[in-house]
Amino acid sequence: MTQGALLKASDLSVTRGARPVLDNLDIQINQEDILCLIGENGSGKTTLIESLIGILPINTGQIKWLSGDGNSVIVRDHLGARRKPFPFGLTLQSDGICGEEKVRERLESALKVNGLNLKQNEIMSFLDEWGLSHRSEDRVSQLSAGLRRRLAVLSGMAPVLFCETPRIVFLDEPTEGLDLFSRDLLKSWIGELSANGNAVVMASHDEDLISCSTRILRVEDGKISETKNTTQISELKERKLFVDTSSDSIRSFFLWGVSIERRNPVDTIGKATPAILALLLSYSIVGRTNISNSELELFSALILAPAFISAIVSPAMIRRLNEEDCGKWWSATCGPQFRPATSLLASSIILPIPLTYLSWFVLEGMITGDVNQNAIYWLWLPSIVIMDISCASTALHMLVSDLRRSSAAAASLLLVVLVWPFIQVVDALSMILDNGMTWELSTSSPLVSLLFASVISAMVWAVAIFIPDA
């Protein structure tokens, strides 16, 4: 990459479905560039942006970013290489914000994933400049469309404007839904970004915004043609710039998910409710009958069924990430670690142990024969393996949600494969109930059954997580 270049894409080709959208493009983004992508709807402007930031896979070519140490790093190529890009700002066409986030929380998350840990008064000053400070503690779902768009644009630009290190801001139709005040502020910030050595890449139909650019790229029939432009930078404000630390986007993502679930625990409730209903149904049907030692597998299945049901229920987190392309925003900022992290964050890792012990105390009166007295102390072990099954289940739900018509896909058919590891866990618990826990590695050992169940779950998880990025 030449001096001053922040990103370079070579021989870039991308298809959407069976249709080629970009065909062997070469593009370089330099410091101080204000680059505007223009073209008809569907010409490939958004596809180009999403390919450069790693949301979409590419068919040919490679994409290089300038890293924090000044070296050029391949973050995407057609052979499957995928690394996290150097931190950047991003505003998607669909905002990329979950409605359950708070206004202040959203801006704070955008800053943190880019390595900027600012004080609350500094964050509030940015919100005030964009006329959002009075709504700082409101949920995004309570904002009007115009205020929501303001927040999306602010969250995309602030992490770059206030950072000392030159970066790129990607803005997809940023003026859509903005009022005159916000448009003027947007143009002012774009000028400041460029003057501070940053680059701005935007897709727009807005002639007023196009006139502010230094480079105009028309996307048409999979190709690009460039026109140079001159623009006057408005008088710059004296702003405090912050030194960026190492970006820990995955930690920020986990904190974001935990914060939203704590505020509105629909995920936990949504998984626990059918599990409790299954337990009550089991008790109402067989609670008055007696189970002998020869039927320990049935008893084990009833004990573990609530935990298993909580593991395979579709997570609310996936629905949150699908809202307004929120998952796309996090995928771009977190890079290739996003899918594995989501499969852990959205899975049921809290419920299996308490649900299993609750089932035991409700149903233990059904057993008439002798059961190993130490069995209760080992109930946590099969519960942990059900956590593995939950991670695999979440990965399958994510795989289905990636489909263009995810609601038309029969996700339940994919979940059938998880019955296999569940049967192994049931066998293990029945062995523990009958003979106690043993650590020997033999076909009659509960440990072997549990390990086998974990391996199967891990294989399903790996296939569902890594195939979409291949």
Could you walk me through the main structural features you see in this protein, from its secondary elements to its overall organization?
With 470 residues, this protein is of the alpha/beta class. The protein has two domains: 5-228, P-loop containing nucleotide triphosphate hydrolases (Rossmann fold, 3-Layer(aba) Sandwich), CATH 3.40.50; 249-469, no CATH class. The protein is 47% helix and 14% strand. The strands form two sheets. It has a six-stranded mixed β-sheet, sandwiched between helices. Strand 9 (215-220) and strand 10 (223-228) form a beta hairpin. The longest helix has 22 residues, at 380-401.
Question: Key terms for this structure?
Answer:
alpha/beta, six-stranded mixed beta sheet, four-stranded antiparallel beta sheet, 17 helices
- N- and C-termini, Cα separation: 26 Å
Q: Quaternary status of these chains?
A: single chain
CATH superfamily label of the largest domain: P-loop containing nucleotide triphosphate hydrolases
Elements, N to C (H/E)? EEEHEEEHHHEHEHEEHHHHHHHHHHH
Average pLDDT? 87
Query: How many individual β-strands?
Result: 10
Write the SSE topology:
Blueprint: E1 5-16, E2 19-30, E3 34-38, H1 45-52, E4 60-66, E5 72-77, E6 89-91, H2 103-112, H3 120-129, H4 145-161, E7 168-172, H5 180-195, E8 199-203, H6 207-210, E9 215-220, E10 223-228, H7 249-263, H8 266-286, H9 296-312, H10 316-322, H11 326-334, H12 338-345, H13 352-363, H14 380-401, H15 411-415, H16 419-435, H17 446-466
Parallel strand pairs: 3-8, 3-9, 6-7, 7-8
Antiparallel strand pairs: 1-2, 1-4, 4-5, 9-10
